[in-house]
C-alpha cells in the first residue's frame, strides 16, 4: 500500500497512501482518506459532487514513526479542487492543489513522504 512510483520525476513526488484527511467547504466537512499525497496536493474520495475551482480547507494527519513517541502531526492549509471524477462505485475522486500552505506545513509532508522513498 505504501508505494511511490520509481519513475517519479516530479519535483515533489506523490506517495500512494491512505492518510486521514478532512476537507471543509461551505459548512460541509468531509472526513475521508487520501489516495495519494504530495507537498503540493492530494487526491481523495468524497460522496458529494464538488466542482473544480472550489476553495477548500484541508486538515491532513501524518502518522509519526513509533520510535518518536509522538502523536500524529497535523497539516492545515487551504486548497482548490482541480479535478473531479465520477467513481463507478459511487461518489467522486477529487484532486486538491494546496494553494495556500506554509513552508513549515509543506516540510512536514516532505519529511513524511521521504520515509518511503528509496
The CA-CA distance between the termini, in Å, is 15 Å
Give the total of beta strands.
6
Just name the CATH architecture: Beta Barrel
Might you state the CATH topology name?
Thrombin, subunit H
General shape: globular
Structure class: mainly beta
Protein described:
By secondary structure, the protein is mostly beta strands. The protein has a single domain, classed as predicted glycosyltransferase like domains (Thrombin, subunit H), CATH 2.40.10. 10% of the residues lie in helices and 46% in strands. The protein has one helix at 103-114, and strands spanning 20-25, 28-38, 41-46, 55-62, 73-86, 92-100. Strands 1-2-3-6-5-4 form a six-stranded antiparallel barrel. A hairpin with a 2-residue loop joins strand 1 (20-25) and strand 2. The longest helix has 12 residues, at 103-114. It is globular.
Question: Which descriptors apply to this entry?
Answer:
single chain, mainly beta, Thrombin, subunit H, six-stranded antiparallel β-barrel, disordered N terminus
Amino acid at each position: 500500500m505504501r508505494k511511490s512510483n520509481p519513475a517519479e520525476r516530479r519535483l515533489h513526488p506523490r506517495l500512494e497512501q491512505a492518510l486521514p484527511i478532512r476537507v471543509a467547504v461551505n459548512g460541509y466537512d468531509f472526513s475521508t482518506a487520501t489516495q495519494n499525497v504530495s507537498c503540493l496536493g492530494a487526491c481523495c474520495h468524497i460522496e458529494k459532487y464538488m466542482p473544480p475551482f472550489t476553495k477548500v480547507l484541508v486538515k491532513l494527519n501524518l502518522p509519526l514513526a513509533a520510535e518518536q513517541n509522538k502523536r500524529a502531526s497535523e497539516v492545515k492549509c487551504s486548497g482548490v479542487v482541480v479535478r473531479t471524477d465520477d467513481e463507478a462505485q459511487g461518489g467522486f475522486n477529487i484532486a486538491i492543489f494546496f494553494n495556500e500552505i506554509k513552508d513549515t506545513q509543506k516540510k512536514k509532508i516532505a519529511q513524511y513522504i521521504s520515509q518511503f522513498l528509496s
